[in-house]
Design brief:
The structure holds three protein chains of three kinds. Chain A folds into two domains: about 80 residues, Roll (Ubiquitin-like (UB roll)), CATH 3.10.20; about 70 residues, DNA polymerase, domain 1, CATH 1.10.150. In chain A, about 30% of the residues lie in helices and about 15% in strands. In chain A, helix 2 runs antiparallel to helix 5 and helix 3 packs across helix 5. By secondary structure, chain B is α+β, with helices and mostly antiparallel strands. Chain B folds into four domains: about 200 residues, Aldehyde oxidase/xanthine dehydrogenase, a/b hammerhead (Aldehyde Oxidoreductase, domain 3), CATH 3.90.1170; about 170 residues, Aldehyde oxidase/xanthine dehydrogenase, molybdopterin binding domain (Aldehyde Oxidoreductase, domain 4, 2-Layer Sandwich), CATH 3.30.365.10; about 190 residues, Aldehyde Oxidoreductase, domain 4 (2-Layer Sandwich); about 150 residues, Aldehyde oxidase/xanthine dehydrogenase, molybdopterin binding domain (Aldehyde Oxidoreductase, domain 4), CATH 3.30.365.10. Chain B is globular and about 90 Å long. Chain C is of the alpha+beta class. Among the domains of chain C are: about 55 residues, Uridine Diphospho-n-acetylenolpyruvylglucosamine Reductase, domain 2 (2-Layer Sandwich); about 90 residues, Enolase-like, domain 1 (2-Layer Sandwich), CATH 3.30.390.50. In chain C, about 35% of the residues lie in helices and about 25% in strands. The N and C termini of chain C lie far apart (about 50 Å). Classes of the chains: A alpha+beta, B alpha+beta, C alpha+beta. Chains in contact: A-B, A-C, B-C.
């Protein structure tokens, strides 16, 4: 099957690549671009470990083809804050650290990006809004207690 | 307390890399020239493998090799070992069938490893795996404990009669029978501890990487204990000496027990890499995890509690059938025995206890340790029957518990089931829980719920558990085939910064922070000066890893022991510098000081002297400042506490909603309260998950009905309220930190509290029992069934 | 996943042409149902026709007592639409309860309707509200659109372009979600409309269905108690590990009463 040309803005930089039509976005990111912060935790589109922002909205990168990001701005966890010495975390990342919203860290990138999408649309969400919004992000470590606190704190700090 | 020392809620140092997407999990690693492995798994639960035709797969694009059990057998690959030997009542050894990494002639559960396809890309390997033609001749299937013990049941293993792996006992049967003979009341209860699938969010992954130049083999794997894997795989399965085998467990995305065990795929990729001279990577898809990660729990038990007129416990008799699955997994024999039967005293002065456990093979995935491992099964059984006794005898359930608690002045307390509890204060955690949960105010809340048409219930559980399996020599007498100590190296660098190497492994627990806090506290240096290294057999001398909530109590104690050696040597160096006698040197707040004087030298200066020994007692001391230690604990530690759960049940739909959870735990001395609270939150969530949502279900043919997140219910954020957690500390008496362990208390303590709450809500409408998970349909049916004979009884009043 | 060719038309006509020229062609809307089944090789199209570039499938507009929603409008857009919230708040709430946030961000109305998953929420909305499915060539009433398990009245190369919802006097949707998958075990849309009361049930059986007995009882008196004593037969309902047929039948009654109560 011939590859197709793909141009998108990835973490602030314009990227052009050739992809197979059936390449999933998550595979393009992890294998094609070495962006291994986006994780795969299931094969039935439910765990949310692979969530990234595409066109400003949180999406499951395991349930989207890479070619569907043509012309879109895609942000992965690596693109949320500058990765340099002394680089400041995004307020949502900082809130997760401050409130111990992560343990093993595996669900964290998807959780953070999902939360960023929430607070962009609903600044200062209440507890129920946060819990409902996180339906598609499974965490096995935290019991969600500190994640909810972190999202609420991160949602007050703007995005 | 220093800002980053013991007792401070220091923000975690590991978080930064995870938050910026720079964690490094096994699947994030790719080796040059790497091949990809896909396992061909049995689609049926029990079958003779008559033939395997790999011809078409071998001819498929990109395929490098297809191997079967016969290929491994030809290389004399050994079976996956079980690390604990259990003896039956009659003194015979447990039945321990050989567990080849690839099964040559018979598949014994859906998902069993039948062949491996290795190709240039993962997609090619996956496509070719579908082309391997296996002739399965199906055999009769056993799924449940009940199936396995039925007279005349078919056999999972032809040479294991009655499918019985072992028939074990603990406690004094005669004394227990005598206690029952003189009892005023006997309460009986049948309980099922539902089978669970651990579901760490990171699927397992393994990369075998053989370097023909050095003859060194490296295995990168999602493990909680890389040294244990090196020992088991190197020694028993592949025959590679430790010096030639490196096991790396980098960032690991949760384990909860499921990543303790040595799995077939680790051996398969390592062996294949050595055969092919190229790295071989395997990553589980989640659906593979469901059918190949060891499952948890799966007990069916009958319990009897003997009491006198006053409600004093006289004896406990327990008979359990434990499903171990098709094969004995690494700790499969230890969990339903030494981690279960020994805990049946709970926090009570029950003078006579007898427990027998029949472990049975079935055509299911092996069952092994899952968060709590044996102790949740014990706590659930005890706390359910205590509530049942309270109901039957008409004694308040809190009062009944108090009446039977081991009192504070009875410690150390020898139970009738082998353990000696060193310390505890069960009334204190209970009092705290009652207050924090507003137990007294419940009646009002229940009345308000009635107004909303809801049934409200409150439940309690008072539990004790055991962490940090120990000591090695006693465990050895009981059948352990490994030591249970931990190691540490503390390396002080010339400018006073410190690297700690620990044999514990962190996969979410935050050791890089907690262990650094211990160093910060003991050496009086800032945590930023401390780096904690774990998870690599090439860097760490040895280690037993992280399970059973042992890391701080055992691994942390090893760090303390090594730090003591550092301070001791530093004292000698300082004595030389300060021209004083070593006995006169005190060390505090990062300074060595001549007692009673202002003559002092900073820790960093002492470190510098050790590496630039110009003014240094070279005739007495070696240069350098590094110490290693092994710590073998004197006893288990015994965290304990009280969990209270409040639920509201919608009687029309049967939906149970958890409205409040209070956890009052005694986990000993707390190093980082923030991390400890987080561990409790996570354990509570898994415990509530077991009680209300999660259940592994097979159909009669051994097909897994709950094989994905579409039907295995993983709890979500909306399923929980905020948790109300707090603690009361009685320090552990026998380790230098006074720490007990916290990783599992939530999943041990809370399930019975949830079910006791559900029953508290349902008993008034005539329901007499319910099993985990209390799903909405189960609750609705129970209410329907009860309705007939519940007429005229007050509803939820 | 099997390889396939992609087509990115910018009009419905181009999309139809691409579909007709394909071996085994499939339309790709949000992909939230299609991609998961393709990952499992349960669907193996040779060609995917992406609808993402067709502007005609976008947009929500209110016109003459109806709300018309383009087929490519996402669940999140329906949830957030002021037009929908003003005219049919029950529809906005239904959209906000589909799947999870990420599914709602990608999944589309047209995709859900054409897929006709028995546990999807939208079929209850279409049938409950008496909506009309607009395709490239005709209009199909919701009652005759859903024909069975994953089956609709659409012919092979027909493309849903919009759904037109009449504004009801009042309506509410009550959902009992599967705790694992979040799909509907039972979802009931109840609406008092110009054409009478409608009660539509999704999740319980192979396809969305109406409950005539409930509709006539509610027509006589639109209050929850009107449904007392009306039992839905479990004969045709799903029974599986998630919920038995009896339980589903029972939940239809409970959810219907709750939806009526919410209308008040």
């Amino acid at each position: 099957m011939p590859t197709i040309a793909l141009t998108l803005t990835l973490n602030g930089k314009q990227v052009s690549a050739e992809v197979e039509p059936n390449t999933l976005l998550v595979d393009f990111l992890r294998e094609g671009r070495g962006l291994t912060g986006t994780h795969v935790g299931c094969d039935t589109s439910q765990c949310g470990a692979c969530v990234v922002l595409a066109g400003g909205r949180s999406v499951k990168s395991c349930t989207m083809f890479a070619f569907e990001t043509e012309g879109l701005e895609v942000v992965t966890i690596e693109g949320l804050a500058p990765a340099v010495v002394g680089g400041e975390l995004h307020p949502m990342q900082a809130a997760f650290r401050e409130h111990h919203g992560l343990q093993c860290g595996f669900c964290t990138p998807g959780m953070v990006l999902s939360a960023v999408d929430l607070v962009r649309r609903h600044p200062n969400p209440d507890e129920a809004q946060v819990r409902h919004w996180l339906e598609g992000n499974i965490c096995r470590c935290t019991g969600y207690h500190n994640i909810v606190k972190a999202v609420q704190a991160g949602g007050g700090g703007g995005s | 307390m220093s800002a980053t020392g013991i007792g401070a809620s220091v923000k975690r140092v590991e978080d930064h890399r995870f938050l910026i997407g720079r964690g490094r999990y096994t699947d994030d690693i790719n080796r040059p020239g790497q091949l990809f492995a896909v396992i061909v798994r049995s689609p049926v639960a029990h079958a003779r493998i008559a033939a395997i035709d790999a011809g078409e797969a071998l001819a498929a694009p990109g395929v490098v090799a297809v191997y079967t059990g016969a290929d491994m057998a030809a290389d004399e690959v050994g079976g996956l070992p079980c690390s604990w030997l259990v003896y039956s009542k009659d003194g015979s050894e447990m039945k321990e069938p050989v567990h080849p990494p690839l099964v040559p002639d018979r598949a014994r559960h859906v998902g069993d490893q039948v062949a491996v396809v290795i190709a240039e890309t993962r997609a090619q390997a996956k496509a070719a795996a579908g082309l391997v033609d296996v002739d399965y001749q199906e055999l009769p299937v056993l799924v449940t404990c009940g199936d396995a013990i039925t007279d005349g049941a078919p056999l999972v293993w032809d040479d294991v009669p009655g499918n019985t792996c072992f028939d074990w006992e603990i406690g004094d049967k005669a004394a227990t029978d005598a206690a029952f003979a003189r009892a005023d009341h006997v309460v009986r209860l049948d309980v099922v501890n539902n089978r669970l699938i651990p579901n760490a969010m990171e699927p397992r992954c393994a990369i075998g990487d053989y370097d023909p130049g050095s003859d060194l083999t490296t295995l990168y794997t999602t493990s909680q204990n890389p040294h244990v894997i090196r020992l088991l795989m190197g020694n028993f399965v592949l025959g590679i000496p430790e010096s030639k085998l490196r096991v790396v467990a980098p960032d690991v995305g949760g384990g909860f027990g499921s990543k303790i065990f040595h799995y077939a795929e680790e051996a398969i990729v390592t062996w294949a890499s050595r055969k092919l001279g190229r790295p071989v990577k395997w990553t589980a898809e989640r659906s593979e995890s469901f059918m190949s990660d060891a499952h948890g729990r799966d007990h069916v038990s009958h319990a009897e509690l003997a009491l006198d007129k006053e409600g004093t416990f006289l004896g406990l008799r327990v008979s359990t059938v434990a499903n171990v699955g098709a094969y004995l997994s690494t700790f499969g024999a230890a969990v339903p025995t030494y981690l279960y039967g020994t805990l049946l005293s709970g926090c009570y002065r029950t003078p006579a206890i007898y427990c027998e456990v029949r472990a049975v093979f079935t055509n299911t995935v092996p069952v092994d340790a899952y968060r709590g491992a044996g102790r949740p099964e014990a706590a659930y059984l005890i706390e359910r029957i205590v509530d049942e006794a309270a109901r039957e005898l008409g004694i308040d359930r809190v009062e009944l518990r108090r009446r039977n608690f081991i009192p504070v002045d009875a410690f150390p307390y020898q139970t009738p089931v082998a353990l000696e509890y060193d310390t505890g204060n069960y009334d204190a955690t209970l009092d705290r829980a009652l207050e924090a949960s507003d137990w007294q105010g419940f009646a009002v809340r229940r009345q308000q719920a009635v107004g909303r048409g809801m049934l409200r219930g409150i439940g309690i559980s008072t539990y004790v558990e055991a962490c940090g399996l120990a000591p090695s020599n006693v465990a050895g007498q009981l059948g352990a085939r490994a030591g249970l100590y931990e190691s540490a190296i503390v390396r002080v660098h010339p400018t006073g910064s410190v690297t700690v190497f620990t044999g514990s492994h962190s996969h979410g627990q935050g050791h890089e922070t907690t262990f650094a806090q211990i160093v910060s506290d003991r050496l009086g240096i800032d945590i930023e000066q401390v780096e904690v290294v774990h998870g690599d057999t090439e860097k760490i001398p040895f280690g037993m890893g992280t399970y059973g909530s042992r890391s701080l109590a055992v691994g942390g104690s090893a760090v303390v022991k090594a730090l003591d050696k550092i301070v001791e040597k530093g004292r000698k160096i300082a004595a030389h510098t300060l021209e004083a006698s070593a006995e006169d040197i005190e060390f505090a707040d990062g300074e060595f000081r001549v007692a009673g004087t202002d003559r002092a030298t900073a820790f960093a200066d002492v470190a510098f002297s050790a590496y630039v020994p110009h003014d240094y007692p070279l005739e007495e001391l070696e240069p350098g400042l590094e110490a290693s230690a092994f710590y073998d604990p004197k006893n288990f530690t015994f965290p304990a506490g009280c969990h209270v759960c409040e639920v509201e049940i919608d009687p029309e739909t049967g939906v149970v909603r958890v409205v409040a959870v209070t956890a009052s735990d005694d986990v000993g001395i707390v190093i980082n309260p923030m991390i400890v609270d987080g561990q409790i939150h996570g354990g509570l969530a898994q415990g509530i998950g077991q009680a209300l949502y999660e259940s592994c279900v097979y159909d009669e043919s051994g097909q897994l009905l709950t094989g994905s997140y579409l039907n295995y219910c993983m709890p979500r954020a909306a399923d929980f309220p905020f948790f109300n957690v707090g603690n009361h500390v009685t320090p552990c008496t026998h380790n230098p930190l006074g720490a007990k362990g916290v990783g599992e208390v939530g999943s041990i303590g809370v399930p019975p509290a949830v079910i006791n709450a559900v029953l508290d809500a349902l008993v008034p409408v005539g329901v007499t029992g319910i099993e985990m998970p209390a799903t909405s349909e189960k609750v609705w049916r129970a209410i329907c069934d009860a309705k007939g004979d519940a007429k005229g009884r007050a509803v939820a009043s | 996943m099997q390889p396939f060719q992609i087509h990115r038309p910018s009009s419905v006509a181009e999309a139809l042409a691409a579909l007709r020229g394909a071996g085994e062609g499939k339309l790709l809307a949000g992909g939230q149902s299609l991609i998961p089944v393709m990952k499992l090789d349960l669907a193996e199209p040779t060609d995917l026709v992406s609808l993402a570039g067709i502007d005609a499938l976008r947009g929500i507009r209110s016109e003459g007592g109806r709300v018309v929603i383009g087929a490519a409008v996402s669940h999140a857009e329906v949830e957030a639409s002021p037009d929908v919230a003003a005219a049919i708040p029950a529809l906005a709430r239904l959209a906000g309860a589909i799947g999870d946030a990420q599914v709602r961000n990608r999944g589309t109305l047209g995709g859900s309707v054409a897929h006709a998953d028995p546990a999807a929420d939208y079929p209850a909305a279409l049938v409950g509200l008496g909506a009309t499915v607009v395709t490239d060539r005709r209009e199909i009433g919701a009652d005759s659109f859903f024909t069975g398990l994953f089956e609709t009245a659409l012919v092979e190369d027909e493309i849903v372009t919009a759904v037109s919802f009449p504004v009801p006097e009042r309506a509410a949707y009550a959902k009992f979600p599967n705790p694992a998958s979040k799909f509907a075990i039972v979802g009931v849309m109840v609406a008092a409309t110009g054409q009478g009361v409608r009660v539509a049930v999704t999740g319980a059986g192979p396809s969305v269905f109406r409950v005539a007995e409930m509709e006539s009882a509610l027509a006589d008196g639109f209050r929850p108690e009107a449904l007392d004593g009306i039992a839905v037969s479990s004969d045709e309902l799903f029974g599986d590990g998630d919920a038995s047929a009896e339980y589903r039948a029972h939940l239809v009654g409970v959810m219907a009463r709750r939806a009526v109560a919410e209308c008040a």
